[in-house]
Amino acid sequence: MAKTKRYLKLGRFTVTSRTLGTGKRTYQLARLEKTALKRPGLIFALAITAASAGLFWSFQDLIYEHEVPFFFVPQIVATLITSRIAILVVQSKALGSEVAAIGLYGRLARVRAAIDEALEDLAERESKSHMAADDDD
User: Fold this and answer.
1) Is the model's pLDDT at 66 over the cut of 80?
2) Which residues, 6+ apart, have CB-to-CB distance to 10 below 8 Å?
3) What is the number of alpha carbons within 13 Å of residue 29 lying toward its C-beta?
4) What's the burial of 106, exposed, middle or buried (CB within 10 Å: 0-12/13-18/19+)?
5) Which of 20, 45, 124, 125 is disulfide-compatible with 79, CB 3.0–4.6 A?
6) Residues 72-93, mean pLDDT to the nearest whole number
7) What stretches of the chain adopt beta strand conformation (E)?
8) How high is the mean pLDDT of the chain?
9) Do residues 83 and 32 make contact, with C-beta atoms less than 8 angstroms apart?
10) Residue 137 pLDDT more than 60?
11) Residue 2 above 70 pLDDT?
């Protein structure tokens, strides 16, 4: 049996040649087909920011100078926060599509890169084993 290789250990996340551990759940890489990293809140924050800017420009002649920050500061803060938050989604035929983790975008991007690398290595090992089995026949 081949030795298990560790691709990443980052806080509660562990990616090895066989598993993805999230702290709450462990997934077998052999069963995973696809991973995705999404920022669902960012679209809504940008839409609200755009709507707020539109309202500001429509009613700017009625708005006092000291009221201007109330139009933009909350939206800018929300956009910055939601741009840093992401969800890691794993997909397989057995599980369907499932949220594996919610966290900071940078951290989850590193986890996803490690998963993708491990999945590529797994596919390569499987193709080599199939070639070796075909050669034995």
Assistant:
1) yes
2) 107, 110, 111
3) 25
4) exposed
5) 45
6) 91
7) 6-10, 13-16, 19-21, 26-28, 34-38, 85-92, 96-104
8) 89
9) no
10) no
11) no
